[in-house]
């Protein structure tokens, strides 16, 4: 039976699809939907299928989809027949219009790394990969930080980037990729080795933590290559890292399934399945594109949601100190930002870029704020005139359409924003 809808309820969730080529530098939002609450996994699978078919009809050759670990996205996986379980594994599906080409499924790599870190710093604050080895302990990072910060000269520290923010995680800091990847980095590995060699108390049993950090440092590097000289190839070292990481993950899960380690000492099923699918899909798409489509390498750094995260970050910034913009504001900003890839001239081609004039920015965050915080007719007319003028000009030269740092507004700014509004209401 179809779900009964209340037509007077307003949407509170935005869903955006974005197209990202593996052989080019641009990204393009292609669809937006407004929902009341999260979209159902079944409906999401239908929308994704429709989007893939339309892209194919317009000449794109689709090879994969990327999503995070949200429950609705995993339901979409199951609708496509994708499963990350070790004994029922499948990481691809085919489209109705082309049964010969596989569409590989990926989970967002930065999101997975955050999930691993969050699992390690959860209630138990320890994991165990092998019953014959010591625990991977959160306290080893705390001891390392304590020893490192005691060195007054920051240039002499083994881990100068390690801060208290990496160890005392708030709800906001748990969402920051940088804090997770820096914790599983080579500098942390070297720091633990250095202080362990000096017989620092608390680091006697940190070998498992060292190996764990090294494993995820190498894995993240292999899944985040952004330059051609480091691209993933079937014969490269990164491919071997992916193979060994998949085997290591399977062995870890087998230790849990056989009762050799406890459930709290292993990853969550959602994270483990996401890692398994992403690693296998990365290897499969590399082999497919290099063998059948003349790719010399794969830039795995493009197989994630970074561009989509930046897109939503711009919308948050443009809406001012408000992470929850209204539906009309969201849709209008989507239309503006979707013009980015269309209006920006190519770096090479038939267009000749002038060297004399200064680069021009189509629109800035401050201008967007002035429009949507004070949606006056004058502001809208001024924006339209600005767009028309740039389109009609013969010289096309500007670096970025939107200037931004795609970061959340600081908490202090949010407090000031709301308190000021409250005081204004009392005064007037």
TrEMBL record:
Source species taxonomy: Eukaryota, Metazoa, Ecdysozoa, Arthropoda, Hexapoda
Cited InterPro entries: TNP-like_GBD, TNP-like_RNaseH_C, TNP-like_RNaseH_N
Pfam family, one: TNP-like_GBD
Protein name: Transposable element P transposase
Lineage: superkingdom: Eukaryota
Organism, scientific name: Lasius platythorax
Annotated ranges, domain Transposable element P transposase-like GTP-binding insertion: 111-229
Domain Transposable element P transposase-like RNase H span(s) in chain numbering: 9-81
Record domain Transposable element P transposase-like RNase H C-terminal: where: 303-335
